[in-house]
Write a structure and sequence with these properties.
Oligomer: single chain
Strand content: 15-25%
Number of domains: 1
Radius of gyration: 18 Å
Helix content: 25-40%
CATH class: Alpha Beta
Distance between the termini: 69 Å
Order of helices and strands: HHHHHEHEEEEHE
Strand order of the largest sheet: 1-6-2-3-4-5
CATH topology: Cathepsin B, Chain A
Number of strands: 6
CATH architecture: Alpha-Beta Complex
Structural class: alpha+beta
Number of helices: 7
């Protein structure tokens, strides 16, 4: 009887599909889409490259909420030396004060368009890229493969491997945080086997090396339809 009760308890604890929450995520995706630019631009400069050792994690913005997009920008800005002599805390405060989260008034975090605004204010071009039509079945669906390979080659090979870290939207649950929570992180480095992200959960918000396939899983953000493999591509000018 005890085993049956334990089994029933386990079934009760199993997360169930929540249509209302799913609809909210769909609405969020539509809202973000209106705030993002769909322009894609390849690197056209030969400036010095950034290494993963250049990154500082920005884990604290005093009295702030939903600030991961601002922290990701601060990491990129500091890594390239565009922080204008500001301390880490002053840089984080300045970004958050001037460019707070903007999705549904900040309640759902920061849009790609706002991330781009922050980067542009600190001397970067910032272009937006994503896999726009990601069909059910994920990587196992052959119809997704062409778009995915193009996007991966564009973002990882032409930017990250070239020493131009990018800001990616991931599912926090895949990097040690709470599941079904969008989270902006800088992708500091990547190769065929591993990726290193900054501002990661579960590692003191510092640099986190991880298997490249696990990063791809996080980057897919399966619970946000229409926002799969979102990236902001910063280029110093």
């Amino acid at each position: 009887m005890s085993e049956l009760n334990d089994q029933n308890q386990t079934l009760e604890d199993t997360p169930k599909f929540n249509q209302e929450l799913f609809s909210a995520y769909q609405n969020m995706a539509e809202e973000v889409d209106t705030l993002a630019s769909n322009e894609e631009v390849l690197i056209q400069t030969s400036r010095s490259r950034v290494t993963v050792d250049s990154f500082n994690a920005f884990s604290t913005v005093p009295n702030a909420t939903n600030y991961c997009g601002q922290a990701a920008c601060a990491s990129i800005i500091k890594a390239w030396g565009h922080h204008r002599g500001k301390s880490d805390e002053d840089l984080a405060r300045d970004i958050y004060a001037k460019f707070p989260p903007d999705i549904f008034g900040g309640a759902c975090g920061t849009s790609p368009g706002r991330v781009a605004q922050i980067l542009q204010a600190y001397g970067f071009k910032a272009t937006y890229a994503q896999v726009a039509a990601w069909l059910p079945g994920g990587f196992l669906n052959p119809l997704n493969q062409i778009a995915w390979q193009h996007h991966r080659n564009h973002v990882i090979d032409k930017w990250v491997k070239a020493g131009y870290p990018v800001i990616t939207l991931v599912d926090a649950g895949a990097i040690g945080g709470p599941w079904f929570q969008p989270h902006w992180v800088p992708l500091a480095s990547a190769n065929d086997s591993n990726a290193t992200i900054c501002n990661a959960f579960g590692n003191g918000y510092t640099n986190l090396p991880m298997n490249i396939d696990r990063f791809h899983e996080a980057w897919e953000v399966r619970f946000l339809p229409g926002l799969n493999f979102v990236s902001l591509l910063p280029q110093p000018i």
